[in-house]
């Protein structure tokens, strides 16, 4: 028991000595110490003392000096259609009424719409056609589909691709923009009767199809979509 008391006193004395040594080495808190590192806060605030990363720098637009020419808003149109031609003037007029209009973007969209319309007509997909056609053109397409269905005829069609799609005219009609394209495509198409016999076209041959289609959009409307308003098949 006496040994236990001596050992206890020894460890107590050792603990006191160690405490005072640590106090002398580490010093006392003064209140000006840096706070402990918090990885979650650091990830949100970043290193305030370090140099800022280039991607955090936002360049403000430079104010145009007096007399300095403005950017040419017709540059894309002039590159697409020769200046001073009727086509160029028509595209410029559309640009004046719709600042977001770009001829190349329009052609890309028209090519997609062309394929969708051709295939929707072959499949009798009225819902897709209604979203892409004007009321008058839609009624004509639906009438043809109805006549085909009444005879139990079906169109077997495969879209191969578009060889050319060129804007041939552009104009503003009141608040409506009208653009006409000449489209040359390749298509495999055959119409079969109720018995499955081919009555038109050829299911094995790729045919060249030439169409002249006109798309229109009301530039006063918030609806950005163009619709097919006229079709003509070129001989």
Automatic annotation (TrEMBL):
Residues annotated as transmembrane: 6-26
Organism: Mesorhizobium sanjuanii
Domain Tim44-like: 87-233
GO BP annotation list: protein import into mitochondrial matrix
Localisation per UniProt entry: Membrane
Region: Disordered, residue numbers: 31-56
Protein name (database record): Calcium-binding protein
Bias (Basic and acidic residues) ranges: 45-55
GO terms of molecular function: protein-folding chaperone binding
InterPro entries tied to this protein: NTF2-like_dom_sf, Tim44-like, Tim44-like_dom, UCP031890_Tim44-rel
Similarity annotation: Belongs to the Tim44 family.
UniProt main location, coarse: membrane
A GO cellular component annotation in the UniProt record: membrane
The entry's keywords: Membrane, Transit peptide, Transmembrane, Transmembrane helix
Pfam families documented for this protein: Tim44 (PF04280)
